[in-house]
Amino acid sequence: MTNIRTLRTALEEWTDWDAAGYHLATAVGLIDPEKHPFATKAKHVFWSKHPVGDTLRDMLERLVALGVVQRRDEPDHQYRWNHEYRGTWE
């Protein structure tokens, strides 16, 4: 069984958008990080016009709109988990 990190733990620190998208893809089970490492098998999904990469970026932006994740544009387009966020289930 694959040991997948949660999005919360993967985005502890500011993370470039492509890596954040990859972490989201692994967290939802779309990409298996053991079979499809970011640098060698999956980077093209985020560095080209790709429907899955575009959707993952949109999902990150929805999480920003909800306050779950934070975004900054400098020094690069990056995301991190918003540790102040509390869901209604908590």
Describe this structure in words.
This protein has one domain (7-81). The mean pLDDT is 91. The protein has 90 residues and is mainly alpha-helical. Strand 2 (69-72) and strand 3 (78-81) form a beta hairpin. The protein is built from four helices and three strands; from the N terminus they run H-E-H-H-H-E-E. The chain has a three-stranded antiparallel β-sheet with strand order 1-3-2. Helices cover 46% and strands 11% of the residues.
Q: Major sheet: order of its strands?
A: 1-3-2
- Taking the alpha carbons of the first and last residues, their distance comes to 28 Å
Sheet with most strands:
3 strands, antiparallel
Number of strands: 3
Strand residues, percent: 5-15%
Number of domains: 1
Q: What is the overall silhouette?
A: globular
Main structural class? mainly alpha
Helix % is: 40-55%
- Assembly form of the protein: single chain
Summarize the structure.
This protein has 90 residues and is mainly alpha-helical. The chain contains four helices and three strands.
Features:
90 residues; mainly alpha; three-stranded antiparallel sheet; 4 helices; globular
Helix and strand arrangement:
Layout: H1 7-10, E1 15-16, H2 17-27, H3 38-47, H4 51-66, E2 69-72, E3 78-81
Antiparallel strand pairs: 1-3, 2-3
Helix pairs in contact: 2-3, 2-4
